Amino acid sequence: MEGKVHVLDHPLLQHKLTILRNKDTGVKEFREIVSEIAMLECYEATRDLPLEEVRVETPIAPGTFKALSGKKLAIVPILRAGLGMVDGILNLIPSAKVGHIGLYRDPETHLPVEYYCKMPSDISERDVIILDPMLATGGSASAAITFIKGYGCRHIKLMNIIAAPEGIACIQKDHPDVDIYVAAVDEKLNEHAYIVPGLGDAGDRIFGTK
Ligand code: PRP
Ligand code: URA
């Protein structure tokens, strides 16, 4: 069975994504909104976190209430653009550990090239959410998932902001156990493997490098 694609169509997400798409949105606002979108997506992607009963005394009376059962999480941004999503997630899950994986797409072949990797030492015990704003051909995300599985991780989710149908098909084929969380699925890729209409080059827009 292939992984589920969760298209998060909350009005706040859609509104913020439209601001990202606008070519006139400047680097400061772009960066802030990428982080906000990641926070809103995280709310949905963590909906299945297990709860346990805890005893607490309110100022009025003691009672039994729900609390997170302490499941260990790690987030792994794909450098560079995934870095823009980290703060938004940590706002909601401050105790998550952060691994990093550096991949760039070769401009000719569009294939991912790895240049950096540093994971938390206990990554194999953690549920992992991989972060990257763009899922285009899917090559980078698929390589990152393969890499993280190599550490023994078995519960992996992928969080993107915009996906192309080609990228979704790639992940569903290579990693049918991985669910995808995304704010929009766009029409197609162009001849340079950019998402159409998309938002342009996410890394350049987050870091102001173009
Ligand atoms: C972008 C994006 C993804 C990748 C998506 O990164 O952030 O990592 O391309 O493309 P794919 O699905 O076809 O692999 P890029 O390689 O431009 O690197 P950057 O984040 O350093 O700008
Ligand atoms: N990487 C980006 O940053 N944007 C795209 O549209 C495709 C890959």
Distance between the termini: 41 Å
Order of helices and strands: EHHEEEHEEEEEHEEHEEEEH
Shape: globular
Q: How large a portion of the residues is in β-strands, by DSSP E?
A: 25-35%
- Figure out the total of helices: 6
Helix content: 25-40%
Q: Would you give an account of this structure?
A:
It is a single chain. The chain is α/β, with parallel strands linked by helices and 210 residues long. It is built from 6 helices and 15 strands. It has helices at 11-21, 27-45, 86-92, 139-149, 165-174, 202-207, and strands at 5-7, 51-57, 62-68, 73-79, 97-98, 100-105, 112-118, 127-131, 134-135, 156-159, 162-163, 179-182, 184-185, 188-189, 195-196. Strands 1, 4, 5, 6, 7, 8, 10 and 12 form an 8-stranded mixed β-sheet that branches. A 3-stranded parallel β-sheet has the order 9-11-13. β14 (188-189) and β15 (195-196) form a beta hairpin. α1 runs antiparallel to α2 and α2 (27-45) crosses α3 (86-92). It is globular, with a radius of gyration of 18 Å. The chain starts with a strand and ends with a helix. 37% of the residues are buried. Bound molecules: 1-O-pyrophosphono-5-O-phosphono-alpha-D-ribofuranose (PRP) and uracil (URA). Residues 81, 134, 136, 194-195, 198, 201-203 line the site of uracil (URA). The site of uracil has 9 residues, from α6.
Topology of helices and strands:
Layout: E1 5-7, H1 11-21, H2 27-45, E2 51-57, E3 62-68, E4 73-79, H3 86-92, E5 97-98, E6 100-105, E7 112-118, E8 127-131, E9 134-135, H4 139-149, E10 156-159, E11 162-163, H5 165-174, E12 179-182, E13 184-185, E14 188-189, E15 195-196, H6 202-207
Parallel strand pairs: 1-12, 4-5, 4-6, 4-8, 8-10, 9-11, 10-12, 11-13
Antiparallel strand pairs: 2-3, 6-7, 14-15
Helix pairs in contact: 1-2, 2-3
This protein binds 1-O-pyrophosphono-5-O-phosphono-alpha-D-ribofuranose (PRP) and uracil.
